Amino acid sequence: MLFSDSKMNNNFNKMLNTNHDLVEKKDSLHYLFNEYKRFFELKNFSEALEILTQILQKGFPVAEFEMGKHYFLGSDQLGITKDYLKAFDYFSEAALLGHAGALYYQGIMYLKGLGVVLDVNQALHSLNMAATQGEIEALDALGKIYQFGYVDILPDYKKAESYYKNAVNMGYSPSMLNLAVLLEKQFRFEEAYELIIESAKRGYMGAIQYGLSTYK
């Protein structure tokens, strides 16, 4: 049975209106989040917290991630004490919505048993999901896990090098140093030295200090 032109038009208009409503909602949440940041920078912390609280639990992962960080680190400005349980809950909400930074923090918390039972498999899952979205710190964390081994994960230099190289290709200075140290263990000193120099040129103090102490 064929739809009439009027019925097709009505369905199409409903779809357009729905999409428009979603865009308006997202724009509104972006606006509110920017207002939160503005008040925070102006040190109007009570207003900032009020706005951030308004946009939580509305399908806006950036706000969930932001609150997760406040509970993970603690925030004297907002009167939030460090609470790993709450931090993990907020990161998990944002992670479900695909926020790469939240996936990274979720992975680290699983890895260290912060606010959740230590679970290396879940940690690797979250970190890899974050890494596939280009989260540099997740790539670096995975590199370290396979460089040094962790719990029942044995060192795997090939995997570690791959993760580090992905982070290096994105310009992440700490991974340049971490990869250099890994290469030194394999007697690949020329490659290591070039990475340390590049990392130091970018102003990474860890590379500067390591270079000065190692390559005198």
Q: TL;DR of this structure?
A:
The chain has 11 helices and no strands.
Q: Report the structural category.
A: mainly alpha
Runs in which pLDDT lies below 50 for 5 or more consecutive residues are: none
N- to C-terminal separation?
83 Å
Shape: globular
Arithmetic mean pLDDT: 90
Largest beta-sheet characterization: none
Task: Output the radius of gyration.
Answer: 23 Å
Helix content: over 70%
**Which band does the percent of strand residues land in?**
under 5%
Number of strands: 0
What is the helix/strand order?
A: HHHHHHHHHHH
Number of helical stretches of at least 4 residues? 11
Describe this structure in words.
With 216 residues, this protein is mostly helical. It has helices spanning 5-41, 45-55, 61-73, 84-96, 100-112, 120-132, 136-148, 157-169, 173-185, 189-201, 205-214. The longest helix has 37 residues, at 5-41. The chain is globular and about 60 Å long. The mean pLDDT is 90.
List the helices and strands and how they pair.
Elements: H1 5-41, H2 45-55, H3 61-73, H4 84-96, H5 100-112, H6 120-132, H7 136-148, H8 157-169, H9 173-185, H10 189-201, H11 205-214
Helix pairs in contact: 1-2, 3-4, 4-5, 5-6, 6-7, 7-8, 7-9, 8-9, 9-10, 10-11
Fill in the keyword field for this structure.
216 residues; mainly alpha; 11 helices
